[in-house]
């Protein structure tokens, strides 16, 4: 790669022609994440309206921390969040939220706020001055929950992984048992994370049942809907998140299912005020209180960040262009494609689904090449570990398509198909199946 | 504002003409942060090459966590950081770093890594299992240091503010006294932050002397050069950061002095490896280890974030277009303008500098309207508190220029002029002085 393009910073200015050539090289050598046959990531696709929004964002180049320098964008953030609060099922008059640089930081915001509500002393005196906290998330949840626990000084080992059932959903009984056990061990439970759309299997944890447990034990109830949040915009499919309105906080990344450009991620709170109390640093030298407008519009004191990129314009513009109805159709169409792909996998020889009936846009499967199908099960399993990486390497060499794989628990490497790009057609899905068979059968 | 533009998200799609009209309104009603008479923020200006870079970034729309999907950009990040490491004075073969969403998160990265190096147990078991930590930063430093201490579970009150001298620089003797005192009180000092370019006064802390103290007490030495880092590119002015090469970590925001679009912020480490050990979450389901390339190029396990925006392309393109020589000239020119403005302030009646000889691009001053000049000093001080806000409100009504103000310690509200936009000319500076006099004299 380093031989194909000169990435070094020169001593003297480079002329415009050379710069334009460099830009061409950069785009040519990059991975086409917007291509409808790029199935590798949950965030993909390239919505042109969102792109135009990002271009104008760059042109406006302002900072989201005060109404003074970003008046329109601050109001825009509120307008967009109002639709998101309504979609969650909250009263927009009482709710709060902030756009964060990605879901991991959004989850960190939520856990930090939860700690602050229960133990405000921690902000000033640290964790030594409060009980030993612990939190809970499913074993299939995103690693950022454990990371947040590490960063916040709670400790990754005090974030307990709750087992999931065969569909990848958190088992509520196991959660409650662990909560009780942790109390017996002298720990203080404070936070439970449910995932709405897990990274690998796309599973939705049972929100209502977990909400009941959180109420019973007086725990903060967070829903990491980074991936699944967009489903709230489909009246047909939103039942999968039933109970989300009982959450104290919700992470929802429009740069995933809604197709906004990276980065666009919101951390939403049912209760106004906490975000401010938790993160306010009283930096009057930046956030003056004697300005000629209502300074409650300023968001600087709600953020862990100081300067904050404008992530809302591209989402707002795209959302206006589609309307609520456009998103409804887009999400329903993706769900239909998911059902189509699942059917095709089931009927094509050599494919084996990990979860028989995927409920979302993740379809996980093995491809078992014909020459190993008749081996002993243990031998097939051992061989499978290397099949998916080899098939993927073949795709990358051909440059035709890309799809992710991973091992999980006792399962050897399997493919994780993601149907998230609004440009995907049935032909693209058929192509992927054909390509996997083609490369898989040609392996030595 | 809400009457001037319809910010709501509609039920049905909006047509293209209406969308374009909305975009026009948004840009028209926004604040022109790229205008050469916008002096309100440290991050301002609008470099067209950087903007083009951001546009292409949006077009490529990829995620910085793996080489697999961002091969060029991952190598580009390394190439740009190499120049930054060299500018700091480190061996690029041994250094490390990551682009973070803003200086506050970059500072958080640094403090988290410092804790991990000294007390790796904290990652797994939390703060309860290690001594009570404390850290140090000057009273004029950015509030994000205290915030990081709060977020990490160390506690804001365990981040001690060290007094500064009349030029706004940390007093090393006061730092060492506080370190010794905190040990006597049973605390465990671990982290000292020096600021290179403070937010209000633009002061540079005495890095060499603080480095000596950190060595003596075996403390992590962090330099928050978010604002002043760009000075390292000027052979004429970089002496102000002498000793920065002794730091363990440096925050440097190219979206400030270097004029890259928001957001562009780097957290640099002298020692490779720590960032990975500290933040690795072993999420093999996302960052597979059996890929057909050297997976040490993947950055996902170094980050607190999972998905990470590509902040480097716009910087790289701009830096190529200027070369090292272009930045040298740009920074020297800004420093010359700063000296010019200071001279003009000194010779214009009614203006009073807060720090007699500003050493950077912040010039802090009062304007004392003629009708209050002959009052008693205490009375002048009381009146001054309201003068700057009123003059600024006047500027905003006229829409001609913008400059920030703030109170500090015993000082009533004063203006903080920032000369950071490369488009600024002497005429713009003359204009600001004239405008302040004009509005100031017209006040009731």
Automatic annotation (TrEMBL), chains A, B:
Keywords: Decarboxylase, Lyase, Pyridoxal phosphate. The modification N6-(pyridoxal phosphate)lysine is found at residue 256. GO terms for molecular function: carboxy-lyase activity; pyridoxal phosphate binding. Transmembrane segments: none annotated. InterPro entries: PyrdxlP-dep_de-COase, PyrdxlP-dep_Trfase, PyrdxlP-dep_Trfase_major. One of its GO terms (biological process) is carboxylic acid metabolic process. Its cofactor is pyridoxal 5'-phosphate. Coiled coil: none annotated. Homodimer. Belongs to the group II decarboxylase family. This is Protein CBR-UNC-25. It comes from Caenorhabditis briggsae.
């Amino acid at each position: 790669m380093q031989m194909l393009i000169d990435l070094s910073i020169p001593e003297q200015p480079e002329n415009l022609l050379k710069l334009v050539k460099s830009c061409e090289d950069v785009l040519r050598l990059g991975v086409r994440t917007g291509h409808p046959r790029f199935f590798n990531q949950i965030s993909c696709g390239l919505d042109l309206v969102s792109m135009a929004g990002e271009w104008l964002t760059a042109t406006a180049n302002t900072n989201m921390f005060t109404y003074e320098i970003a008046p329109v964008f601050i109001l825009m953030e509120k307008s967009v969040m109002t639709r998101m609060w309504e979609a969650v099922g909250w009263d927009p008059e009482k709710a709060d939220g902030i756009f964060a640089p990605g879901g991991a930081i959004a989850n960190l915001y939520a856990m930090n706020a939860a700690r602050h509500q229960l133990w405000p002393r921690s902000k000033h005196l640290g964790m030594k001055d409060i009980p030993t906290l612990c939190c809970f998330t499913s074993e299939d949840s995103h690693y950022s929950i454990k990371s947040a626990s590490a960063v916040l000084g709670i400790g990754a080992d005090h974030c307990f992984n709750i087992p999931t059932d065969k569909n990848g959903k958190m088992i509520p009984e196991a959660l409650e048992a662990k909560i009780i056990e942790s109390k017996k061990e002298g720990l203080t439970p404070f936070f439970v994370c449910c995932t709405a759309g897990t990274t690998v299997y796309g599973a939705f944890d049972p929100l209502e049942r977990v909400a009941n447990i959180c109420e019973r034990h007086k725990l903060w109830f967070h829903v990491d809907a980074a991936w699944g949040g967009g489903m709230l915009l489909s009246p047909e499919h939103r039942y999968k998140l039933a109970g989300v309105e009982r959450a104290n906080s919700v992470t929802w990344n429009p740069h995933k299912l809604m197709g906004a450009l990276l980065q666009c991620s919101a951390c939403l709170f049912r209760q106004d005020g906490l975000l401010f109390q938790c993160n306010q640093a009283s930096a009057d030298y930046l956030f003056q209180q004697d300005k000629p407008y209502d300074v409650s519009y300023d968001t600087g004191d709600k953020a862990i960040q100081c300067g904050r990129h404008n992530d809302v314009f591209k989402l707002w513009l795209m959302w206006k262009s589609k309307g609520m109805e456009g998103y409804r159709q887009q999400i329903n169409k993706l769900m239909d494609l998911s059902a189509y792909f699942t059917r095709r996998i089931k009927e094509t020889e050599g494919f084996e689904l990990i979860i028989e009936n995927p409920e979302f846009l993740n379809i996980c499967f093995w491809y078992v090449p014909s020459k190993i199908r008749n081996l002993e099960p243990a031998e097939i399993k051992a061989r499978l570990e290397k099949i998916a990486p080899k098939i993927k390497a073949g795709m990358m060499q051909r440059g035709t398509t890309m799809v992710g794989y991973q091992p999980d628990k006792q399962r050897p490497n399997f493919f994780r198909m993601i149907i998230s790009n609004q440009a995907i057609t049935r032909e693209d899905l058929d192509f992927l199946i054909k390509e996997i068979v083609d490369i898989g059968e040609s392996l030595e």
